[in-house]
């Protein structure tokens, strides 16, 4: 026997049905979605110390009851981030041309699970702004309206249902690389057309990311062989090697950033990811070539220009090639991050500094984080322990999606959890009444 499907309810009727749940259910329904879903707190937010004890990481008499640095909220433009733990963009290789490079059910489950676990920010994996900018045949793309709708439906909507802040890393791999010792013959007109085409692809993708997919922020991938990385790399013999001309050193990147800014709301934050340096050990390159490579001073100069062009976060991902051991690299990175933050701070700019960290314990994380600052120099001078403003964590989240809760436990903290999971963390009615 054929059973007809009920007619689709208009959105107003759906909201009425959802609101009616609130009078019949033991939990309040969210008004954000057209199905029953408990209204969530701000996940990952510090509530109190366990047993009302004080912080084990208190820094002075006036700070003993403040949350540990990991769980101190901060702001990026209009975003209030509940803690200082962000999920790094990590390639997942889980789509294809058959799916038109759209998010799949895997992405829905993967990012949905992370959204329930309370990180302050989630950055979706590097997503190509055009077909020619794909890293591999199995990466996400965002150059069409249909793709943007799938990003919203598969990834963003549920993250927002959980009150999570989620952004996307956009990238364009430099597939124009022609190899060492070869030259690309291209007239100036076609080169100008190429740059204009790249600018438009970035701008269109960014607009789709914010206006259609509804991401909260955008990170621009400027490292790991992507097209902006090419302007700094002596080994790249493509027309995009603009760094040889000091006057054009930053022109492509800043032109695209300005173009993106012109099509997205002013309140939307922009992140930029890059290496601190391109310099490998000098013995591996001729001294003349080595001097041409992008170095720490260039990065600091560039970060200041990015801040002046309304970029809120600089994300330093590597570039410490002159150090042999992992310990030396870590120490060099942290010294550079301090120097970078100080340079930005002295220019009275409010750019935040971060970078991927492979940390395993909350104690390590606390050591890397810096005190909160509001963009103005505090009385009494600068703190001498500034390294990063927040953490970007990659591989540890793949091993343990509950990393935020684990670190909260290590620091003797209770943080907000999803309503559905709350009995696993605070089952006492007495506690719930106090909360």
Automatic annotation (TrEMBL):
Organism phylogeny: Eukaryota, Fungi, Dikarya, Ascomycota, Saccharomycotina
GO molecular function: FMN binding; NADP binding; NADPH dehydrogenase activity
Matches recorded under InterPro entries: Aldolase_TIM, OxRdtase_FMN_N, YqjM-like
Cofactors (names): FMN
Coiled-coil residues: none
Keywords: Flavoprotein, FMN, NADP, Oxidoreductase
NADH:flavin oxidoreductase/NADH oxidase N-terminal domain residues: 70-305
UniProt organism field: Naumovozyma dairenensis (strain ATCC 10597 / BCRC 20456 / CBS 421 / NBRC 0211 / NRRL Y-12639)
A Pfam family it matches: Oxidored_FMN
Start and end residues of each stretch annotated as Disordered: 361-383
Protein name: NADH:flavin oxidoreductase/NADH oxidase N-terminal domain-containing protein
Annotated signal peptide: none
């Amino acid at each position: 026997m054929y059973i007809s499907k009920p007619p689709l309810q208009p959105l107003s009727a759906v909201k009425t049905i959802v609101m009616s749940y609130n009078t019949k259910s033991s939990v309040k329904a969210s008004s954000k979605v057209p199905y029953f879903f408990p209204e969530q707190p701000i996940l990952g937010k510090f509530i109190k110390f366990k047993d009302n004890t004080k912080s084990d990481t208190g820094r002075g008499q006036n700070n003993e009851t403040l949350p540990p640095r990991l769980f101190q909220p901060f702001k990026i433009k209009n975003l209030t981030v509940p803690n200082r733990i962000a999920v790094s963009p990590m390639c997942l290789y889980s789509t294809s041309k058959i799916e038109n490079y759209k998010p799949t059910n895997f992405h829905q489950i993967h990012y949905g699970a992370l959204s329930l676990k309370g990180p302050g920010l989630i950055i979706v994996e590097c997503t190509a702004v055009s077909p020619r900018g794909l890293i591999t045949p199995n990466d996400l793309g965002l150059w069409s309206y249909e793709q943007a709708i799938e990003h919203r439906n598969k990834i963003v909507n549920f993250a927002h249902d959980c009150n999570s802040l989620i952004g996307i890393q956009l990238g364009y791999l430099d597939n124009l690389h022609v190899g060492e010792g070869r030259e690309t013959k291209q007239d100036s007109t076609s080169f100008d057309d190429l740059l204009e085409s790249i600018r438009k692809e970035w701008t269109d993708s960014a607009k789709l990311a914010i206006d259609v997919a509804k991401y909260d922020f955008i990170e621009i991938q400027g490292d790991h062989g992507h097209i902006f990385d090419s302007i700094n790399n002596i080994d790249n013999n493509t027309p995009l090697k603009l760094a040889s001309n000091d006057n054009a050193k930053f022109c492509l990147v800043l032109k695209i950033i300005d173009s993106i800014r012109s099509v997205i709301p002013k309140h939307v934050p922009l992140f930029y990811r890059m290496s601190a340096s391109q310099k490998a050990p000098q013995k591996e390159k001729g001294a003349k070539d080595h001097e041409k490579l992008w170095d720490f001073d260039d990065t600091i100069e560039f970060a200041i220009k990015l801040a002046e062009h309304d970029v809120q976060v600089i994300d330093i991902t590597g570039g410490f090639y002159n150090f042999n051991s992992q310990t030396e690299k870590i120490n060099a990175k942290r010294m550079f991050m301090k120097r970078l933050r100080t340079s930005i701070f002295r220019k009275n700019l409010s750019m935040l500094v971060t970078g991927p960290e492979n940390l395993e314990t909350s104690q390590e994380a606390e050591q890397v984080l810096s005190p909160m600052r509001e963009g103005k120099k505090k009385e009494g001078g600068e703190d001498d322990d500034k390294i990063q403003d927040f953490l970007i964590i990659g591989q540890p989240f793949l091993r343990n999606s509950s990393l935020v809760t684990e670190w909260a436990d290590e620091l003797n903290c209770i943080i907000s959890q999803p309503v559905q999971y709350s009995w696993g963390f605070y089952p006492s009615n007495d506690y719930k009444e106090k909360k």
